[in-house]
Sequence to fold (129 residues):
Amino acid sequence: VQLVESGGGLVQPGGSLRLSCVASGLTSPYYVITWFRQAPGKEREGVSCISNPSGRTYYADSVKDRFTVTGDKAKNTVYLQMNSLDPEDTAVYYCATGPRGGSFYGCKWPARGSDYDYWGQGTQVTVSS
Fold:
């Protein structure tokens, strides 16, 4: 399994970014993709999760109503649309997957990084004026 993130960058407070996570090598029709983030000096945080094939989505309270996770099955890609960005959102964002993260019923939430076996390389998001 390989996961490749893209879409990070520098954005002003109040701005938007869309992250992409392209997955390859998934063999099960039942899987979840979760976005995590980690800022310097802070613990890793599960931000959002989407399950396949149910399409159920989950969000951390800190991003609810600002972030939206979607999936494009034809492209094997999961997107994280981030709006109304705040400097507190500055972090490296990772997508991850693994059988212990959830199943056909949905995501195990809140997500724990230790439940995930496969990780992307991460993409930096910096929110600053």
